[in-house]
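To assess whether ligand presence alters the predicted conformation, the chain was also submitted together with iron/sulfur cluster. Input:
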Amino acid sequence: MLIMTETRSTCPYCGVGCGVIIQSDGKQITGVRGDPDHPANFGRLCSKGSTLHLTASSVVTGQTRLLQPLQRLQRHGPTQQISWDHALDLAAQRFARTITQHGPDAVGFYISGQLLTEDYYVFNKLVKGLIGTNNIDSNSRLCMSSAVAGYKQALGMDAPPSCYDDIGHADTIFIVGSNTAYAHPILFRRIEDARKTNPALKIIVVDPRKTDTADIADVYLPILPGTDVMLFNGMLHLMLWEGWVDQAFMAAHTSGFDALKTTVRDATPELVAQICGISQADLLQAARLFAGLDTRDDSNFIASSADTTRATGRKPTLSLYCQGLSQSSSGSAKNAALINLHLATGQIGKPGAGPFSLTGQPNAMGGREVGGMANLLSGHRDLGNPVHRREVAALWGVPEVPSQPGKTAVELFQAAADGEIKALWIACTNPAQSMPDQATVRRALERVEFVVVQEAFASTATCAYADLLLPATTWGEKEGTVTNSERRISRVRAAIRPNGEARHDWHIATHFAQRLEALLPPRMPIPETGSRTLFPYTNPESIWNEHRESTRGRDLDITGMSYAMLEQAPQQWPLKAGEQQGQARLYEDAVFPTPDGKARFVSTVYRPVAEPRSARYPFSLTTGRLRDQWHGMSRTGTLGRLFGHASEPVVALHPQDLAKLALQPGELVHVTSKQGSIMLPVQASAEVAVNQAFIAMHWGEEFLSGISATGQRLAGVNALTTSVFCPDSKQPEFKHSAVKILKADLP
Ligand code: SF4
């Protein structure tokens, strides 16, 4: 007789981090429902989360899972099944040989914000501690590195200071570059709820595209793509001119404003309106609402004066922002310019007030915490800091962590295309579809001598380039932790045993590392027993305990957060040893983790997009998410009902542009950039402004084929996107490519 069980876990899709209860019969996942006790969602799930059980069973029955280790003797040739021992021995031998012959910087690791924190931790230690290179980066580089840079530059640490409850406390919500309705649906429902309970709430939405999120705005600012810094500087200009800044807060708790003055003085309303393509009246209204001083109608203000923020005479403003700011060649400046507004008005560290970046992936935050990126180290330490490198080396028991910066995502694949990276390990991500400028990425994957792909799904575009395919467990089978956008750490739990021969990501990394240890010269004296390993892990909890010890004394100290505590309830960091509860909101004392304790204004100069529209490429292309699909559709693409909302890839254009190009809806067009070309149907959409185009990011090989400028076969919208990146964060500019659109000549 089958016994039905229920297992508490976390949704594997977006950074909202909703709690789920998985129902299973011991062999299969049979159902899923929202966890009513989880503080991220209180029982609610969106279309993706509520169908997790259906995708979980269809990916197995549909044979889309990778279930055995497979080897290819030649690139793109047939695969043959091998044992785990053979696979891990082969991988260790090939990596050891490459490191011995060409040095540690000849290998690279590209991992994922879908991995659990424990997986991330082992990979990071393996690469920086054992191999001795910093060539490890994550697909989180594509979604949050500009937010990291913005927080660190302005506030001194990488930490969203707000929490989800702040949505209910805010009187103005400033949503920038985020289609929250699609990308973070459960948070969007909280915003809708807040509107019902707080009639004074005003919502400002800034987005070139009039999305479903923009539909609920009181003030909608359809800025031209890439002009956010000019908008924020212009708002600050008006706040200064009108006397809406909080001089007392600025004097006591900030520094660096003088360096910003000239830039802000020059951002006059006339100039801002012209560059951003908005009206001066809307600009003024946005600045006034953001400042929280409603000079037109004080009645609501007085009526809602309930908490400490309002008692100071200023209504609280919460900013929610995402890829529209970060996926940009000036992503860090955009993040910092927005934080400047919060510092100028004292809108931080109070209920309902603060800059709050929303993370795209379920565990991009956890990856930041363990330092699983090319420029970071464990416990929010910086690779560029020699003290931090020594601390991490001591924690790991290795002589040193190399000082040479590692290659970030775009740089890693560029180096591979140039022949510098000879062995590449890719875990839980699909760069052949998701990286910008696919032509370069696919050239890199062809050129690398040995490619390992550690993956749960057999059909990703990247799998076709693997010499060795290692089957990984996935949601429902894995144990560990993830951190959501509000710094809340939740347990991920297994409801069923791994399918096929799939193994956990931490386990694969650990057993590969142990083999590599035996082949490389020792990095520390071997004890007489000869049994010492840097990777003694037997379960995720043993990794977690080492990770939390690495945070002792750091800004994100989680030494008090044991698995036993997380079994009771998810917790927000920091949570030090001896404490019973994490911190919901940071900087309530207005003391910032900078040398002088003050937050820093960053001098943010507006720079246009890297590839402006031109006579040859007259459209601005932006990319983004659909409501019911996730990333490259490995999981959501297996379920028919999730295609009900959008059944095929289209390029959305304004009706005026269709008329100008003499196109009818549904006709096929070529969309072409300097990088490549794709062919797909055109759709008339009033959401998209004139001279702009939108294509969803999800569609891959089966749906949307393309070709590079040199005739190479490509797929998906990243055949078109540019790999130009922000100089500070190295995050690429997915949100703008210049393209031309021509009717397809069909026989
Ligand atoms: Fe999952 Fe995000 Fe939907 Fe929550 S909002 S159920 S985390 S996809």
